[in-house]
Design goal:
The structure is a homotetramer of 277-residue chains. With 277 residues, chain A is an alpha+beta fold. Chain A is built from five helices and 13 strands. The interface between A and B is medium-sized, with 13 and 13 residues. Chains A, B, C, D: Residues 159-220 form the Transglutaminase-like domain.
């Protein structure tokens, strides 16, 4: 699968503001970045950062008062391998040290509070892929996808109570149920083509099953194997597409994703990132 | 059913404390108080209060520093009529004015937050008695009775999340689901014989169905028709057995309830309350 | 003070909906209703209800699908007597039985959770009028009046944390602090002229001090002695201006309040309520 | 400062349980481990893990049914340099990439909810060391140290409302206020000698000021420069002294800390960790 991403953000910066953008596709084994361009107007010195463990990439800069435009384009080949049916669940003593902390509760995923509910709802499902699929299905069937029903402070516990939310909330609840059942889980943010516009940033989750991370999308808005990964994190706070320190308002956000099944051959050796400031 | 109640409370009063006790059986059409005695030691001037609408009875007094003993005994005939099977649900426009406010959320019953969950879980149950029975059954099946898992500030929302609680919590969740479905509901506190000791204060709920209040006990600890009613309220704060203003510690609480199927005839005209101070 | 109230509400009723409106000025010793008219279009059978204890008045009716207009006009003389400076605080054992329950926490006023904070902030203020004034001042100084920062489920605890809200939230926090300090308190909703438009429903609170209820407005948007009282309740759920059961959307809400210092003499014997359906 | 640590834990393991213990002193520039011994009885295969970034060390093992004893002893030289008075605050654009995420809210530190309160309380304090000291002082003065008033799920928001907690809660609130003011902050767990027994694990926090991490202890139970660091984390979930997967009960916990001002010379080349299983 070859995906073309085109993101345009326009901000009204009311006072000098430090931006930390997280728009660029991740360094990740399942995808190959063929071409990429990030433009900021007015031209500003950009600082790049790649998280060495997660592969998340950030661009930081100071924006002056005035209008700010961000334009990001990328061509990415996604090669996510679907999991083998029947994939099992690692017993806790076989969860690697670096993965173990994905069992911990986080700001938006209170797995310490939802332990009994998770046991009750999913203890009868067969361990492994089927259990996490049961979690994802339950969320799809019981949480209404309702734009505007949650905000940046909404947590999985609240979603479990109010029974409505958006993709981020669906994913948080999936992460929470998994962790409550001793299955390491984390949030994945990225781009994917939706049948129903408008396109937007998307959030799904992945669970650690028998030695690999497996993606699940409780919204069922798009096939998980098509997601172009931007960020991987404990929860949404780690993968926000923009974190601003100052005073700026997002005036518009346009996201276009195009997918084509047969990707042309990549030209090796070509410099991929051409950040134009 | 004739029930004999015997309650002994011992407090260590660390500084002069105002007591508001709510131990006495209620004025209520379903029960007939045959004999009653309330003793406080040391002897103190007691002030009685009966809520003219709900029939709840309170005794207020100022306790000095030192040990305080309260002893309450009563003999009560309970004649609760079980509801007709198939009892329906009043449409909102037929709920009487004085009953309407039992649809409102209260401190421990956030029916405004649990609306979607209630719809989801119980919308398919037939309206009326069967729906409230479905609510009561769901609570019994999904909430673990776990002493110590909740405290005086725990709300129905928390119980719905943590999936464990005690009788008060079970009742609050029942009240909450009913209100969320436009069925007026309220908390009922009282005495009842439990097969499994120790005896204690009990809390259940009642729902307003087709012109009458119907009792439900999601704990299934005792038949509802045997409950000797002490208090009726919006939620637990209205029917606490003791509210203290000052500094006192409950050292011991002994409650004995005996039930006999064939009550001897009551002697009319006899003064019922003999508060001995 | 003579106040003229003019309220126009327009609803789009999407499906048959039961309305319970609470727009009419209360039966209350501090105010004298000189003239009043309530019109609903289309013409519908209206059912009136007056709460015998609080004096709150409700109109209930079934609205069919379509547009619904409500027009309420009233002329009211308000004679609220400002409290004597130095008014004290009743010790708990002198709080009347019917007033005692205004110490209890309610849905939006978790006085059981904010006890320590209230003690900490206000224990040094002189008991009585000055303490409640200190509470009202603290709220004014520490909570930002920010329309849109809260919603119908926001509680005093949240306001204490987020430090912003609207009049209803200010009043809830006042009620909560008072109750936490064993001062009975309740919410008061009504009409008052604001210097800064737009006019709207207003919410303030009153505390029970030495035998009388005293009004406080932490928003300082208008003098409390000018408030035309519509409702008195434990918290906002008791005094909502409209409670709808069904599916209807408020399209517009226009409220006009005019005040004149010298009221013309009332004509006794005139029928006051002329509900025109 | 030379500190001797002696920790004894006894567990009753009811069913086979996976242990992840976090008792050992951290790899950290401010301290030098002179000698250390970890014993588990019965003898079990132990797996060591050191977080390469934070220096936290964990021991994992599978414990069988039965009693389990853990004994940890260490001698550590602590050389924490107190910060220069007047140390400033880094502007956000100078916070290093790896440090930036310590501005994010976490499970127990809802800095996104307490932004206004933090601004209100600390905006007037001079930026830098003095501001964080003001935060620490405020917590000391306004939160009561009350064992039993919080549990493993209590968050900073709750502590801010209830105004009582233990060392972990004090530290969480400090972390939360700092993050809300764009000062990176994190939790530090360790051992320190308390004047008032019993000794226990301790939790404090550190804030990132002008290029270095500076410790603060809002409990004022011990000088921060004496803390033997065990763990550094986003919040308490990262530095729990024991995380158990299974069913085991802590029967006893004995912690002894001795401090001496003049440390004898260390013998270089000696193997430090002698884990005896």
């Amino acid at each position: 699968m070859l995906s073309s991403i085109d993101v345009k953000l326009v901000y009204d910066v009311a006072e000098p503001t430090h931006f930390c953008l997280h728009l660029q596709v991740a360094d990740h084994a399942d995808q190959h970045l063929r071409e990429e361009r990030l433009q900021v107007e007015p031209a500003l010195p950009l600082h790049d950062y790649r998280d060495p463990v997660k592969g998340n990439r950030f661009v930081r800069f100071d924006a002056p008062k005035g209008q700010l435009q961000v334009h990001y384009r990328a061509e990415v080949e996604v090669n996510y391998a679907l999991p083998t049916p029947g994939l099992g669940e690692a017993p806790v003593n076989q969860i690697p040290d670096e993965v173990l902390h994905f069992l911990s509760p986080t700001r938006y995923c209170e797995s310490d509070l939802l332990g009994n509910a998770a046991q009750q709802l999913f203890c009868k499902a067969p361990a492994g892929l089927e259990r996490v699929q049961a979690i994802s299905d339950w969320i799809h069937d019981n949480i209404a996808y309702t734009p505007g029903s949650s905000d940046a402070t909404t947590t999985a516990q609240q979603i479990f109570v109010q029974r409505q939310g958006v993709c981020r909330d669906f994913a948080h609840l999936g992460v929470t149920f998994c962790r409550a059942l001793n299955i390491p889980a984390r949030l994945v943010a990225g781009y994917v083509f939706f049948d129903e516009p408008p396109q937007d940033f998307h959030a799904i989750f992945e669970a650690w099953l028998d030695g690999r991370w497996v993606l699940f999308d409780p919204t069922r808005m798009a096939p998980v194997e098509r997601l172009v990964r931007v960020g991987t994190g404990r929860d949404a706070k780690d993968v926000a597409f923009a974190t601003l320190f100052g005073k700026a308002q997002l005036l518009s956000k346009d996201i276009a994703v195009r997918e084509s099944e047969t990707p042309p051959a990549a030209t090796p050796g070509q410099p991929l990132l051409r950040a134009v400031a």
